[in-house]
Design a protein that fits this description.
Elements: H1 15-68, E1 86-88, E2 93-98, H2 101-104, E3 108-118, E4 121-129, E5 144-150, E6 152-161, E7 170-172, E8 184-191, E9 202-204, E10 214-217, E11 222-225
Antiparallel strand pairs: 1-2, 2-3, 3-4, 4-5, 6-7, 6-8, 8-9, 10-11
């Protein structure tokens, strides 16, 4: 087949020229849309890291404010019990503190931070309930849970304070059944995906460590409740 007239005037394109043009068009389209796809993937990755970074900052803010505002409530209604409602373990932390603004700003509640399964991965959760430990005995309220941070391999809490009244403060793996709150709490989070932003260690300091209704008794070497 010929695409030109006998007189030599141009009358169209040959089949070879059309095939070459189609091939070039397809190549250019692949390059253009491939570039757009790469850019979109890169933007999505950056956006995801930005969201993750924002999440980490928000979660750290919740932990920092909760620990700083921890209320040294008595652990029970027993007047002879001077221990504070603060159960600090290596993998979990339970205390009494005002709830975050997103739940009910300023209302005191039992709060607990822990790691639990969330689908195929683990996550950091906050559990809370309104019944306080020193309230009258009754049926405890159900604990509500809030997902704080996904893809968490482990959480580690450490506590700074004196092991007893006769020793200097040191970092400890647990803080439970004490007459006061720890002086500082360190939070370490390990993510389960190296592509996610890492969690920098954070240290928070409770503003009040002892209950004002607790008076140190040198005879019993402990807390004497005055109300």
């Amino acid at each position: 087949m010929k695409g030109r007239t006998a007189g030599g005037d141009d009358a169209g394109f040959t089949l070879v020229e059309i095939l070459v043009a189609v091939a070039l068009t397809g190549l250019l389209s692949s390059l253009i849309f491939g570039g757009i796809g790469f850019g979109a993937r890169a933007w999505t990755k950056v956006e995801r890291r930005g969201i993750e970074g924002t999440d980490i900052g928000a979660v750290q803010g919740v932990l920092r404010r909760t620990i700083a505002a921890a209320f040294p409530a008595f652990a029970s209604s027993d007047p002879t019990d001077g221990s504070i409602a603060f159960d600090g373990e290596g993998a979990s932390l339970a205390l009494v503190a005002p709830l975050p603004a997103a739940i009910e700003a300023g209302v005191l509640a039992r709060e607990r931070f822990f790691v639990a399964q969330n689908g195929r991965a683990q996550a950091l959760y906050m559990g809370w309930r309104l019944d306080l430990p020193s309230a009258d005995e009754g049926t405890p309220l159900a604990e509500e849970t809030v997902l704080l941070l996904d893809h968490v391999r482990s959480a580690r809490f450490d506590y700074f304070g004196p092991p007893d009244d006769m020793q200097n403060p040191i970092w400890q793996e647990a803080w439970t059944g004490r007459p006061s709150l720890p002086q500082m709490v360190r939070v370490r989070i390990e993510r389960d995906d190296s592509r996610l932003p890492p969690w920098p260690d954070r240290v928070s300091q409770p503003r009040a460590t002892t209950n004002p209704a607790c008076v140190y008794d040198p005879v019993d070497v402990g807390c004497r409740r005055i109300r």
